[in-house]
Structure formats: C-alpha cells, structure tokens
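Readers outside the structure-tokenisation community will struggle with the description of the input data as it stands. I therefore recommend that a typical entry be quoted early in the introduction. An entry of this sort, consisting of the sequence and the corresponding backbone structure tokens, reads as follows:
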Amino acid sequence: MCCNLDWFIVKRIVRWSICILVATAILFTVLYICLFAIPFMGNEELTEEFTSSVNVDDYYGGGTSERVRLLDDPQESFTYRMNLIEQAQEEIVFSSYSTTDGNTTRIFLGALLKKADEGVSVKIVLDGKFAGLTKEAEYAFTANENVELYIYNEASFFHPTKLNACMHDKYLIVDGEYMLFGGRNVGDFWYGDESYSGDLTLDREVFVYGGEASDNGAISQVRDYFEQIISEDVCVLKDGLSDKKREKGENYAAELVSITEEYYSEKSASIDYTAETVAVNKITLITNPTHAGRKEARVGYILYRLAASSDKVFLQSPYVTLDAEHLSYLTGLTQTCNVTLLTNSIGTTPNLPAYSNYYVRRKNLVESGIDIYEYQSEDSSIHAKTYLFGDRLTAIGSFNLDERSMEIDTESMLIIDGEKFQDNVKETLATYISTSLQVGEDNKYIEDKNVTETKASFIKKAVYGTAGTLLRPFVSLL
C-alpha cells in the first residue's frame, strides 16, 4: 500500500513538472516572439526636421561630369564587376545583403582576395543574417591583412529586439571612381553563367563612372554612407582567428584565387567606360537611417514626394506589401498622375511571405486606377526595384514596395536626373512589359495573344491566398 502511494506521488510530481516545463517553454517562446516583433510593428513618425528638408527641386541638376550605364543583363553585370575589380589599384568597397555559394560567387570572392594579395585595400560589409558566406570564405577574408570584413547586426539569440533589422544595400566601389549600385546580390541565380541551369532572379544595377565628379558626386556619397554603416555599434569587424582557422582560411583563399585566375585567363576584356555610358544632370543618394531599430521611412517618403510632383509614375518592384497607411499614399497618387506598376505574377514569384499579401489585395490596387502588369516567365522572376518620375528622374537601388524597406532595413537608392538615361531604362522596361499581362478592371488578365500566362498550381494559389490573409496582421514585418 505504501509503495503504491509513493509511486502515485512520484507520477504526480513528474506530471506536474512536465506541465510546468511545457508552460514555461510556451511562455518563453511567446515572450521571445514579442521581443522580436513588437519593436518593429507600427509606423515610425517622420520628424518635421526631415520632412521640411525634402525639396523635390534638389533632385534635378544642370549638369555633372558623372556618367552612367544601365546594367540589366545578368552575365553582363558579372562581367562588369569582374573587370572593375581586375583594374583596382587602391581600394575596393563592397556591400551585399546576401551571398550564395556557387561558381560565380567563388570567382567573385576570389577576385577580391586576389586584389588584397596584391596590396589593394578591400573593405566589405555584409548583413549578419543573410550574408551567406561559408565559414571557409569568412576565414579567408579575415586572415588577409588587407581585408576588413564587417558584419552588420549579426544574429544573436540574446538580442531579440534587434534581430529583425537587416542591411539591404548592394554596391561595389573601385578606387573611388567606378561604382555598381542596385539590387543584385551575389549568387549563380543572379548572374546565370554557363554552368547554371536553374531559374534566374532578374535584377538591375546602374554603373556610375565618376570622372571629375568623384570627389563630390554619387560615388563619394555612397562611400560616406559605407563609413556610416560600419560605424554603427551593431557592425562588427571580424578578426582574431585561431591558427587552425587561419590555415583553413588561407588554403581556401588560394583555391578561390586559382579559380579566379582561370576565369580571367579566359574572359578578361577591357571596357571603354566613356563610350558605354551617358552623361546625366545629377545623381543623389537617398537612404534610410542605419541603426538596427525601427526607422523613419525616409526613402519611401522621398520617393512619394517625387511621385506626387510628377504627371506620370512607373513602378517596378517584386511585390507590393504595404500597410494601410502606406498603401493609401500609393493608391492616392492616381488622383493626380498616371501610375503604372510592373511586378511578378503568381506563376513567377518565389516569395511567399511578401507576395501573398499583394496577391490577395491586388483588387484594391486595380480599383484605385493603377495600371498593373505582371511578368510571365517559366524560368525567371523580377527582383529589380526601379521607379520613374516624369521624363527625367529615375530611382534605382535596393528599395522594395514593402514595409521592411519602408521602416526596418537599411535601404539606399540613387535618384538620377537624365532624360537619355531614363530613355534607356524605358527601353529595358518595355521588354518586360512585352512579356507581361495587364490586369483588367475585373481583376483578371486582359488577353494578349503574344503573351502566355505562366500558370500557378492550385496548391500554390491556395497557399498564397491563405498566407496573404493570415499574415495581414504582421504586414509591417514583411
């Protein structure tokens, strides 16, 4: 009898202990999610000091020696960045949100290391959660005395209130005179070399040739912005390798450099940058704040002001995922100007969280009077972020039409004043439009015999439709 009673007590103690542990785990998880999400929900009010400082006329100019070229083709973009690195003499500055291991990534990283071995200063800043560097690559850069590798807001379990913030900027500066700037990350599906057979992610960059304006033009502005990013307390310089890690890094660096040298022996070519570029009137960098917290929507506000002062606006973004307030600004533009949106279709998009919100609310955009074109393709999707205002201003960079770009991530755009350059952009966008279908007033595609709809499966539509509804309360985090 006594033994049975003791065993009964033991079972009750075990059962209650398990219940307490489960309840504690659930409570901790809920608390952690709250600490992760709540600091980044809602809208950060723009200060009067900032809004009063924005003058649309400031983005127009009378002339500069800066020259630019649109880079839309993936392989051409890779050729440009490799040639720029090859000719570097003094300094390379590189920023990227994501790098994905692959053939082009290894060639590119090897090129940076090769120049560092030759005495060129190489400075790199990558996002702390999506940088994607392999450990061997990280060791290779850290081990090189001519490389400074910075990581922005590295993921830390013990700092959930900052975990959401990312560095989303992408640019490459060589010797303070040449720059690639846009939305393209590093990976085979961004460049599509001969060895890659998967789906492409289509992005866009602008090449800036500084010329005499390099001391006070766009390149100088972006270079200063880089210094601002790496000076943030959440940006950490990688150093302090053990002997074993250093040896591993040096061995991997030698492997990467060898791959790069083979590439250069087969594909190195000179580029006449003056002949390939066009003159512009002015280039202005606009950015969000660089701290790792909820930010003022500075880029979004400036783009809105430029749109509101124009008679026609063209928007290209992978998706439109905005909260009610920001969505009202977008739809309200149709009261004063013609607005055209080019984005992915449900058949081409690979982004469930962000696109699903657009998918279930597309009808609201159509009803507002926005002309919507959705890209159709079996093997590629749009990732480019480009915005045209009137006939002169073009914005190219990292800013998506989503809440992350509005108020969570660091973002940067170049506002380029130049009719000829915008004409070049329009020609490129026309090729996308020619393979897109327009959404009619009934929220269905207008038939076009020259364009075939990229069909999405019933399951994909159902999943995106459900996610778009369920994730609506969390739109400020998407």
Summary: The chain has a mean pLDDT of 92. The first helix runs from residue 2 to 37. The CA atoms of residues 75 and 284 lie 27 Å apart. The chain is about 40% helix and 20% strand.
